[in-house]
């Protein structure tokens, strides 16, 4: 589509997926050398650079090119956060965290967790399309920049963020030729706008070429369109059905109409508008109607959703042809997401379509169809939460999150919509719980419960139980207990075994987190018994209770019962096609075999756990397997155990939550650490542990499978610091404050503070303790222990 659009938006971010999620460019990048160089220069001098300009001018594409060319400068990665599909300011921080792989399950404020994670990172965040969330994005950027010295931000917006220290550069249109002074086709492609037109023209019609006959028309098209990439690409797409001269003639007519015969060039905003007007007029009535209807989607969509929501019912089979026509006209962008195709529309074309939809008087009906269809999608996904289609539905719901949020907002904004919202949030629980979206799930459940009335029946009680679970898993035990008590006080429907299964699961988790494993076992048994009596709707809680009971038996030291629960899990969930929870259960089975003196069998179980959790992209399950494998390895390989403990700790920092704390708090964890520390010595243990904590999730899994070493980050060299900074570092290592350092060196306190900040920046550290540790390491390298030197001689 336009200069901002031809890119794949489906690379999976996070710790497990390398150091960037920047999309692959699907069309060549044209021109903009000066703008790229200028933006990179600004980024080197300012920690916040905002690219501004009207829609369709190419801000996103320019930002992506700058980010791609800057990757080597950021050791912890370059990450794209796309905000155009987000409408809720409360979710901005969560979306940034999700992209970075931080699905932290604690009750801590999201911004605190994010800044803690970024505090020692050398990262570039690309915040794309900020204009509709300016206040929330500005607050986030300001806090991150103040607390995370290694973070830089590149933003795109139609207006500045207005944050202190922000450097703003306006993205201009592309260079255009003077159509009155065109002498030959050879020089025209040196103009960026012409080069763009030619490249997109060849994409539309492979035989197209610039000739003496069409050069004037091409030059005039680019000039009349003011060098704006979006209109130029729209014009080039018309070559499939028109000649260059026909496009030029139509544009000339519209230009005269717009300017009323005046020689004054039209405002670029008007140029953009009438270019889109013309694209709309060139569409058939069917295409115009579908263009408008498709704007009901909050993000990209798949064909089944478009057919159900925007089709004409009896003529639904024609919709694919109309979609294909809109793709041909560059109104829709076709993207591949794994093994499916999705379609999306640029924001500016979407805004235009929404304007056209209003007079059609179709919006209320479309909105109802939209929320009904997504409610049905959620119900189907919930039914298949433990099934061979589990991963299909988890990935589908992941892709549909902006649309799901829009459907929930629709329900809550209309009278009588609370019941539908209740059903949707209850249905989304398995997705939120499996994927670690506990904070967002709790937010929506809280909103829905606030809107519901006491007549909402069983769904209200289920929602209260489920939000209590999310609160408990986040560590907000007191609030969770209150919600649990309120849910318990509601009168059950007679014979509702699915509600008993849910209640037992929730009560079991609360007992487990409160350290009462015996009561947890009893509650989980109650849930399992009720689930076995239920024909449908309780499998998820049956599986969850088996997993919870296995963990309870681990804490009680009962290997036989723990292994029995693991085997029941495989017999039930594994047979049904589950991947996520069988992967998590591997820690229970492996621990049981290890306790029974069979480490080989334990490793085999853990390897299967890694395989399943990796297939499900489940960092939590991988963390569980790393944790237990460390316990197993400590007996004979303390170095490996230390690395594995570090790798697991890194995942727990990202994921958090009560269960992570629970596993790390078991005696097996402390025994493993003590055994590894004793076998290695404290210094070597810390080196191995830090080595593991620097792993990505994928690197940790590779290490666990074959113990192939991954190069650790090198410590900064001693000559990184100036003589004065080295003096200051030595005083920091002695524990002196900035005031004491200033007195010692006879300098001002502000100067001392400046030296300390420079040292932290040069070494890539965030604390004075890290400076002290670094200094000890380099002193040791320069003056090794005499006894050790004698020993090795």
Report on this model:
The protein is mostly helical. Among the domains are: 33-170, P-loop containing nucleotide triphosphate hydrolases (Rossmann fold, 3-Layer(aba) Sandwich), CATH 3.40.50; 188-280, no CATH class; 283-360, Orthogonal Bundle (Arc Repressor Mutant, subunit A); 723-781, Arc Repressor Mutant, subunit A. Helices cover 63% and strands 5% of the residues. It has a five-stranded parallel sheet with strand order 2-3-4-1-5, sandwiched between helices. A two-stranded antiparallel sheet has the order 6-7. The radius of gyration is 30 Å and the shape is globular. This is Putative LuxR family transcriptional regulator. Residues 7-18 have a biased composition (Basic residues). Residues 1-20 are annotated as: Disordered.
Tell me what the CATH architecture of the domain at 33-170 is: 3-Layer(aba) Sandwich
Largest sheet: 5 strands, parallel
CA-CA gap between termini: 68 Å
Which ranges are low-confidence, i.e. pLDDT below 50, for 5 or more consecutive residues?
1-17, 257-266, 708-714, 784-793
Strand order of the largest sheet: 2-3-4-1-5
Name the CATH superfamily assignment of the domain at 33-170.
Answer: P-loop containing nucleotide triphosphate hydrolases
By DSSP (H or I, 4+ residues per run), the number of helices equals 38
Shape: globular
Please tell me the overall pLDDT.
84
**Would you give the CATH topology of the domain at 33-170?**
Rossmann fold
Number of strands: 7
Cα gyration radius (Å) = 30 Å
Helicity range: 55-70%
**Percent range for β-strand residues:** under 5%
Structural classification: mainly alpha
């Amino acid at each position: 589509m336009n200069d901002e659009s031809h890119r794949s938006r489906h690379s999976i971010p996070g710790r497990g997926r390398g150091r960037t999620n920047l999309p692959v460019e699907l069309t060549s990048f044209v021109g903009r050398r000066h703008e790229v160089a200028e933006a990179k220069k600004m980024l080197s001098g300012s920690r916040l650079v905002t690219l501004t300009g009207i829609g369709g001018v190419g801000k996103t594409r320019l930002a992506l090119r700058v980010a791609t060319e800057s990757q080597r400068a950021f050791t912890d990665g370059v990450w794209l956060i796309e905000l155009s599909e987000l409408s809720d300011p409360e979710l901005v921080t969560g979306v940034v965290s999700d992209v970075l792989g931080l699905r932290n399950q604690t009750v801590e404020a999201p911004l605190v967790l994010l800044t803690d994670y970024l505090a020692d990172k050398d990262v570039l965040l690309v915040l794309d399309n900020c204009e509709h969330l300016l206040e929330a994005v500005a607050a986030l950027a300001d806090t991150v920049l103040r607390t995370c010295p290694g973070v830089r931000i590149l933003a795109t917006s139609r207006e500045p963020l207005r944050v202190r220290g922000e450097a703003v550069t306006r993205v201009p249109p592309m260079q255009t030729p003077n159509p009155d002074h065109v002498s030959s086709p050879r020089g025209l492609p040196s103009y960026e706008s012409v080069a763009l037109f030619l490249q997109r023209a060849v994409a539309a019609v492979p035989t197209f070429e610039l000739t003496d006959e069409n050069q004037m028309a091409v030059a005039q098209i680019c000039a009349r369109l003011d060098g704006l990439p979006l209109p130029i690409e729209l014009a080039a797409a018309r070559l499939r059905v028109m000649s260059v001269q026909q496009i030029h003639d139509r544009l000339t007519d519209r230009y005269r109409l717009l300017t009323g015969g005046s020689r004054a060039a039209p405002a670029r905003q008007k140029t953009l508008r009438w270019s889109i007007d013309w694209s709309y007029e060139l569409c058939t009535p069917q295409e115009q109607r579908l263009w408008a209807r498709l704007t009901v989607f909050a993000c990209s969509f798949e064909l089944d959703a478009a057919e159900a929501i925007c089709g004409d019912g009896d003529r639904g089979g024609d919709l694919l042809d109309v979609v294909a026509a809109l793709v041909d006209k560059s109104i829709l962008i076709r993207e591949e997401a794994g093994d499916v195709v999705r379609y999306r529309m640029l924001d500016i074309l979407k805004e235009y379509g929404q304007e056209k939809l209003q007079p059609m008087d179709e919006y209320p009906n479309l909105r109802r169809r939209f929320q009904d269809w997504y409610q049905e999608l959620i119900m189907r996904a919930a039914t298949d939460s433990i099934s061979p289609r589990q991963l299909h539905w988890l990935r589908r719901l992941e892709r549909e999150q902006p649309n799901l949020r829009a459907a929930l907002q629709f329900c809550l904004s209309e009278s009588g919509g609370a019941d539908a919202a209740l059903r949707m949030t209850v249905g989304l629980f398995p997705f939120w719980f499996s994927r670690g979206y506990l904070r967002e799930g709790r937010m929506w459940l809280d909103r829905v419960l606030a809107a519901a009335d006491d007549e909402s029946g069983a769904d209200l009680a289920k929602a209260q139980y489920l939000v209590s679970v999310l609160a408990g898993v986040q560590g907000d035990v007191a609030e969770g207990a209150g919600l649990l008590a309120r849910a318990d006080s509601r009168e059950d429907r007679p014979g509702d075994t699915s509600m008993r299964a849910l209640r037992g699961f929730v009560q079991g988790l609360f007992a487990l987190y409160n350290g009462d494993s015996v009561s947890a076992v009893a509650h989980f048994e109650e849930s399992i018994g009720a689930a076995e009596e239920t024909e449908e709707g309780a499998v998820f809680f049956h599986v969850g209770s088996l997993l919870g009971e296995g963990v309870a038996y681990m804490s009680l030291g009962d290997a036989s019962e723990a292994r029995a629960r693991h085997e029941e899990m495989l017999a039930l969930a594994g047979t049904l096609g589950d991947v996520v929870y069988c992967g998590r259960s591997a820690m229970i089975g492996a621990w049981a075999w290890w306790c029974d003196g069979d480490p080989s069998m334990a490793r085999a179980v853990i390897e299967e756990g890694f395989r399943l959790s990796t297939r499900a992209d489940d960092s939590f399950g991988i963390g569980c397997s790393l944790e237990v494998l460390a316990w197993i390895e400590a007996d004979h390989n303390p170095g490996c155990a230390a690395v594995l403990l570090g790798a697991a700790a890194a995942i727990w920092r990202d994921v958090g939550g009560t269960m992570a704390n629970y596993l790390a708090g078991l005696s097996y964890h402390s025994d493993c650490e003590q055994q590894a520390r004793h076998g290695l010595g404290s210094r070597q243990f810390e080196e191995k542990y830090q080595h593991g904590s620097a792993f990505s999730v994928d690197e940790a899994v590779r290490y666990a499978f074959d113990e192939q070493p991954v190069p650790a980050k090198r410590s900064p060299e001693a000559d990184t610091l100036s003589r004065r900074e080295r003096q200051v570092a030595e005083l920091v290592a002695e524990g002196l404050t900035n005031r004491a350092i200033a007195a010692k060196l006879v300098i001002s306190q502000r100067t001392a503070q400046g030296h300390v900040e420079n040292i932290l920046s040069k070494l890539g550290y965030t604390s004075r303790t890290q400076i002290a540790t670094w200094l000890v390491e380099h002193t040791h390298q320069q003056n090794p222990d005499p006894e050790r030197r004698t020993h090795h001689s």
